Amino acid sequence: MTQAINQFEQQEDGQEIAVGKRRFKIKGALRNFKIEDSFIHRQNKLLEHTGNGESKKHVGAYSKGADISAFFEYETWGKPHRDPLKSNRKTYDSANAADAVISNRCFFSKANFKKYLSASRDEFLGHSQAYRENINEHYFSMVEEVNELSDHPLWFSLYDASDSWSQKQSRGYVRSDGDEWKLFRKILLPKVCYLTILKLESLDFKEEKPSFYFRVHWSYFELERTNEIVQSPGQKSEDSASSPQNKTNSRLGQPKFKEGVLNQCPQCVFTKIIDDRLLDAAHIKPYAKFDDDKILADILDDDSQGTHFAQNPNNGLSLTPTFHRLFDRGFFTFDAEGRLICSTHLSTRTWSQLDVNPQARPSLLHDMTSREEFMRYHREEVFRDEIDSFI
């Protein structure tokens, strides 16, 4: 099983985002923190693991020159502190007394929690992994709890819960005692979600210290839910031979679909390559999200142009394979005017290597009228970020 790799980045020209009515510029990011089973709330733990877990999150080693020191602008990792009023445990009060509070300007967002719960719905209700408890019993109550949250940033304080200096190891841990942190742990599932922390500069107020936006995401690398490359049990895929019917549908439908897409869009919208041997016809709304009978009707009906047909050429874009994969995995999308919107899940450096400027948001699609219903689905269900967060 593929494991996400933590990526640290300090950047000076990040994208601008909005959370509630607050506007921020991204100044850095810690990406792709895998959620360990030890951090998961006991109600969502896997059957194979024992114990109730711990409420502190591992963020890396705090040895000299470590990335986490520069990112959080906090140098005294592992500083000893204990709260005698709380069984000698580490708490916010003991951290505050010992000057071991990392930041009082951390937040979650309701929009991010809602998007994650929507993406993880099938796993909560269908269980591809063996859990200790019947996790579907918790799902709808968590959705209700999240729906009742404020649309504004959900602020919390973060303190140092790391290995102390006297210990042999130097593992950096963070923790919060707030209700927001407790809810965060309750919605997480092991192995199939991950954490990204964005370091932000306020665009509304002059603040001396940065804010930190903690975002949870469904792991498209572990259980592919929205693209056609890997499918969870019960789903169909153009690249899967899981059933003869799906294989037949793909063979009959795809050449016709690609021909129609290339007639409408004869070049890759990014690279401008026109050699059809190097072009893919990428579905905007994933092929797997259409019903079998609709796909069959589409194959048999030469005039199938409705938005319920998977192989409608308006449901396609001409892309070279790299950009096709990025599109399927939700790393970019387009707004209603055809402007490019790049996910913050890729670093500025990666976008630069792809010869894309995420801040520019160029207009790459010039005829969105026939594609907008399909693209709306992509923005809302496939794109990795909360679309309303982009300024």
Radius of gyration: 23 Å
Poorly predicted parts? 1-5, 222-252
What is the beta-strand fraction?
A: 15-25%
Helix/strand/pairing class, anyone?
alpha+beta
Please tell me the overall pLDDT: 83
Order of helices and strands: EEEEHHEHHHEEHEEHEHEHEEHH
Distance between the termini: 36 Å
General shape: globular
Number of helices: 11
Number of domains as seen in the coordinates: 2
Biggest sheet descriptor: 9 strands, mixed
**What fraction, in percent, of the residue positions are helical?**
25-40%
- DSSP E strands, number: 13
Give the secondary structure arrangement, pairings included.
Layout: E1 7-10, E2 16-19, E3 22-34, E4 57-61, H1 67-72, H2 92-97, E5 101-108, H3 110-119, H4 121-126, H5 136-147, E6 154-160, E7 171-175, H6 179-187, E8 193-202, E9 211-218, H7 244-264, E10 280-283, H8 292-300, E11 316-319, H9 321-328, E12 332-334, E13 340-342, H10 348-353, H11 372-382
List keywords for this structure.
single chain, 391 residues, alpha+beta, 2 domains, nine-stranded mixed beta sheet, two-stranded antiparallel ribbon, globular, disordered N terminus
Task: Please sum up the structure shown.
The chain is of the alpha+beta class. It contains 11 helices and 13 strands. It has helices at 67-72, 92-97, 110-119, 121-126, 136-147, 179-187, 244-264, 292-300, 321-328, 348-353, 372-382; strands at 7-10, 16-19, 22-34, 57-61, 101-108, 154-160, 171-175, 193-202, 211-218, 280-283, 316-319, 332-334, 340-342.
